[in-house]
Amino acid sequence: MPTLPRIAVTAGEPAGIGPDLCAIAALAGRADARLVFVGDREVIRDRARLRGLAIDLPDYFPGCTLPASVLHLAAPAPVTAGRLDPANGRHVLALLDRALDGCRAGEFAAMVTAPVQKSTINDAGVQFTGHTEYLAERTGTPRVVMMLAGGGLRVALATTHLALADVPAAITRPLVEEVLRILDRDLRARFGIARPRILVAGLNPHAGESGHLGREEIEQIAPALETLRREGVDAVGPLPADTLFTARVLQGADAVLAMYHDQGLPVLKHASFGHAVNVTLGLPVIRTSVDHGTALDLAGTGEIDAGSLGAAIDMAIEMARRSAGA
Known about the structure:
The chain is α/β, with parallel strands linked by helices.
């Protein structure tokens, strides 16, 4: 009987729906993993109470084999559902740090993150762009790749949280090559795809229209793809983004590489919002996340869908087992 993987689930922004999602996931339980919810014990219990959920989460301890437990890190300021407080901004980062440290030490097989409120962390005096960038910096990883999966699609991004005006200059041959290597490697190692077929979007309309609508495809993207093909990567493109996501073009593809955030993610979220998973590729640890924000207006009482967190946990377990050779 293989050992059940221990998965750390961070509660995210305490005023948002992260603690609610943790309470719902704890009540649902898992037979294929041991879930450790990293957050303020009392906040998670309070959300369960507000929602009428009968849960009794015991405290986590090193070597814990309980199906579900809570690794208690107290929020420094009182938490009110739906009301942000910058005094708790650094607490959110402490949750991430603890889960990440546990993954790097082998204490946890993977980490799953509930949503955070970027503005609150920045208001707390910490420059914070997002989970992806923060985890890359904390692990000293020079390049990570954001990929969302759902609705039968996997969409990775060459650039992430970058102003649209800054994207063209960021699309360079070295960047595209590096991102494709990471995407190909992790699709093989962590998703079990023997030879991934990756469709690569162009940056400009009609993939540049032979240079009449931009030259990034000719000067940066296409040469990068030629290099990767010589390395054995099955990379197709650059393709016009407006037709790339049609059924005929997607047939047989394992992933799409979009050049920027809002080129690829609107399509994926249209297909699977609320049930998609955000995966950070290239890290030395496994990290998945929900595909939505903190939903402050729903914290404590509103109707929420825990499908994305459930899917993120599913994917983290699958990736952990594959990485362990199970």
